[in-house]
Structures are given as structure tokens and as C-alpha cells.
Amino acid sequence: MQTLTIDFICSLDGYGSAVGWPGWWGMESPEYLEWLDTRPEKDQPLLMGATTYRVMSALVAEGEPGTEVLNGIRKYVFSSSLEAPLAWENSTLISTDAVEAVRRLKEESDRPLSTIGSRSLCRSLLAAGLVDRYRVVIFPVITGATGQERIFDDYPDVALELVEARTFDMRTQLLEYIPTVLDGPPV
């Protein structure tokens, strides 16, 4: 069975983006970009929801630097609002139950899986116990006034065992955990 890693980038206060700020909050350091380009799992299949599909495929179509690599990667898109065939190459639409579909993908895939964006999809996969790793890259900004897309709202309680930590260019922090969904606060 293959593993599933949830991947998020966020501000220190837990936002996935902010109004008026550039991508990566303008802090895509050379060391972080090199890590993105050289990590072994950089081309493993990606899971995403409809909103992330729309945003990312538009960025690729507009020629946003660094996004062209996504064209060659297998993408599984979970949506009841999109229609097949999807225009973005290597994209497969899955309109059935995401939890059951990901359970099958983990069993049938020949490669590990990871997510890109897709807060609600990630939340449901985590709650179902399908997530093996939870990786967050925290950018050193607080976007309390302009932040959008709070990542951790409506999540279950989760214990996190730290298995990797790394700092890029002395400012951006990568934290990777093994998650355990809890029934409530520890006793």
C-alpha cells in the first residue's frame, strides 16, 4: 500500500494565501525552490479538489514560473462540479466518494501520493485515517488582516509526531509529521 502525504504552505498564523500578497508571500527563497525541484517525490501523483484544480491549471495556462512542471505529473481531481474530460493534461476526474477513491488509489498506485492545496479534501482524508504524513511549510509572515483560506479550521484534533524539520535560508520552516487523529483531548 502506498503512502499519502498532505502538503500545505501557510503563513505563521495558518493562512494559505492573503489578499494582495504574491505567491509564497514573496519569500520563495533559492534554497526552498531548489528543495522543491530536487526532492524525490516531486513527480508523484497529486490529489486535489475542484478549486485547487481551477487555480493551478489557470496558473499553468498563464505561464506562472515554476508551474510548468505540473503538466507532466499525474493529477487526480475530486469534484462533483467539474466535467470530464479535464483540459489540463494528465488529469483524471473522480466524481465518486473521495475517501473510498483514495483508499483504492493507495492500494493500486505504484507510487506514493500527495495533495496540493485542497483544504476540505485533506480534512476528510485525515479524518478517515488515510494520511501517513502531514507536511507544512511555514512562511515567516502574519497575515491577520489580509489572510485567506485558514487551513486548520474545522479539522479534527490531531496529535503530530515530528519526523523532519528543516529551515530554508534561515526563514522558511518545513515541518513533517506523522498524524494521529484523536477522539478528543488527551486524558
Automatic annotation (TrEMBL):
Q: Which SUPFAM superfamilies match?
A: Dihydrofolate reductase-like (SSF53597)
- From the record, give the transmembrane residue ranges: none
Tell me the InterPro entries matching this sequence.
DHFR-like_dom_sf, RibDG_C, Riboflavin_Biosynth_HTPR
Q: Name one Pfam family in it.
A: RibD_C
> What biological process terms from GO does the record include?
riboflavin biosynthetic process
Q: Which GO terms describe its molecular function?
A: 5-amino-6-(5-phosphoribosylamino)uracil reductase activity
Which residue range or ranges hold the Bacterial bifunctional deaminase-reductase C-terminal domain?
3-173
Q: Where is the signal peptide?
A: none
Q: Which Gene3D superfamilies match?
A: Dihydrofolate Reductase, subunit A (3.40.430.10)
User: What's this protein's name?
Assistant: Bacterial bifunctional deaminase-reductase C-terminal domain-containing protein
Q: Which organism is it from?
A: Microbacterium hydrocarbonoxydans
